[in-house]
Design brief:
Among the domains are: 27 residues; 59 residues, no CATH class; 57 residues, no CATH class. It is 23% helix and 35% strand. It is built from 6 helices and 12 strands. A 9-stranded mixed beta sheet has the order 3-4-2-1-10-9-6-7-8. Strands 5-11-12 form a 3-stranded antiparallel beta sheet. Strand 11 and strand 12 form a beta hairpin. The protein is globular and about 65 Å long.
């Protein structure tokens, strides 16, 4: 059933256009976050999502994502701003990545909800008074991971920013991860984006990894991978192009 607000906006195109502009201006800098894990309600180990889950601060963005990727928007029980969520039907999504600078990694350690350590494994990146001071972190991934497991050091903080080519007006989305397995893939990804020479069409893939370890333990986790397909300008004109090689030809 409609009300007076619905009626007036449906019958007054100028007012509706003004409302759309006001909503766009009020949108947060980040439209939403793509997640392949969901926080457990009891604070336990995060729950794996085999299809992408998208969270947003705006119900309109959640509705648009659901229309594009499937799923039904709902409100999460959280104090975070991105309380709206959609568990989509997609484990592979077309995205547009602006270039290698859209892929970032640093290291962070949170203690009781506060950022206690923020570095690039060589020097501190925050707080301002510590920027440039040596952080004294070890130099190898194995040592960094051991420290992080013992809660004596930071974990990777990986961010990849992108837009959705079929809903560019929604703004910028982000994938965030503190996983170690993605680190080895980042140089090839940044290299492929650099060779593209501008914004690139890519696939953001939510991959399920399952195997049995040498110790006989069953391993089952979600891993994000990004496959650069071609420069976005070629995608706009439907020009055929092979995927950009992740390694230069020999």
């Amino acid at each position: 059933m409609s009300d007076a607000l619905d009626n007036i906006f449906n019958s007054d195109p100028e007012l509706a256009e003004h409302a759309e502009r006001a909503e766009a201006a009020a949108r947060p800098d980040l439209a939403g976050v793509f997640r392949n894990y969901e926080a457990a309600p009891d604070g336990g180990f995060p729950i794996a999502q085999h299809e992408w889950m998208v969270t947003s601060a705006l119900p309109s963005t959640a509705e648009a994502v659901a229309e594009l990727l499937g799923g039904t928007p709902y409100e999460r029980e959280t104090e975070a701003e991105d309380a709206m969520a959609v568990k989509t039907d997609a484990d592979r999504v077309e995205v547009v990545i602006s270039g290698p600078d859209a892929v970032r990694m640093d290291f962070k350690q949170w203690v009781n909800g506060k950022l206690a350590h923020h570095c690039d494994t060589r020097q501190f990146l925050s707080p301002p008074e510590d920027v440039g001071v040596p952080c004294r972190c070890p130099g190898t991934i194995a040592e960094l991971r051991d420290r992080a497991k013992a809660e004596r050091g930071p974990k990777p903080s990986i961010e990849i920013d992108f837009t959705l080519p079929h809903a560019m007006d929604l703004g910028r989305f982000r994938y965030k991860s503190s996983g170690w397995s993605m680190i080895a893939d980042l140089p090839a990804l940044k290299g492929a984006l650099a060779r593209s020479g501008g914004p690139s069409l890519a696939h953001l893939i939510n991959e399920r990894v399952q195997y049995t370890s040498k110790a006989g333990r069953d391993v089952d986790y979600q891993k994000a991978t990004v496959k650069v397909i071609k420069p976005y300008e070629l995608a706009l004109t439907d020009t055929k192009a092979t995927a950009i090689e992740e390694e230069p030809p020999f």
